[in-house]
Design goal:
Layout: E1 6-15, E2 19-27, E3 33-41, E4 44-49, E5 55-63, E6 68-72, E7 75-77, H1 84-96, E8 98-109, E9 120-130, E10 142-147, H2 148-156, H3 163-175
Parallel strand pairs: 4-9
Antiparallel strand pairs: 1-2, 2-3, 4-7, 5-6, 5-10, 8-9
Helix pairs in contact: 2-3
Amino acid sequence: MHLEEKMIKSETVYEGLIFNITHDTVLLENENTAFRDVLWHNGGVCVIPVTDNNEIYLVKQFRYPFGTTTREVPAGKLERGESPEICGKRELMEETGFTCRELIDLGEMLPTPAYNSEITHMYLAKGLEFTHQNLDEDEFLDVEKIPLSEAVELVMNGTIRDGKTQIAILKAARILKI
C-alpha cells in the first residue's frame, strides 16, 4: 500500500450543477487515518486554434473568483458521456465561431490534483473556417487573434496566468517549432 490511500468513508457535503464535494476519511500506509475533501468534476476540454500563419485565437472573459478578466484558450466542461473531441469542437465553435479540419491531441492535464478530480483534455485546432459564434446565454467574451510567438511571451512574463492556456500555448509552440 506504499503511496496509496484507501477510502474508508465518504460523505457528500455539496451537490452542485458543475461539481460535487465529498468529505472522505482515508487509511494511510502507516495505518493512521486522515481526511480528504474532494471536488468531483466531469472534466473539461481546451482548444488552441492556430491559423496557417501561426496566429492563435484567445478569449477574454471575466472570471468571478478573481474579479478580473483573463485571456484563455477556448474551453468548456464535458457533459456526461460526451467525448473530449466532440466537446472541443463544440466549444471552439461556440466561443470563437470556428470549425476545424484537424484536431491534434495535446494530452491531458490535472489542474489541481490535490483535491480536484478534473482532467482537462487539450487540443490544437488547425484548418480553421469561420461559421458563426454561438455563445451560451450566460457567456460573455471577446475573441482576439495574436501571433503564437507573442502568446509565448505573454505566458513567460506572467500576463497569461490561466494554467490550461499556458500549457496549451507552450505545447503548441513546441509542436509548431515557434
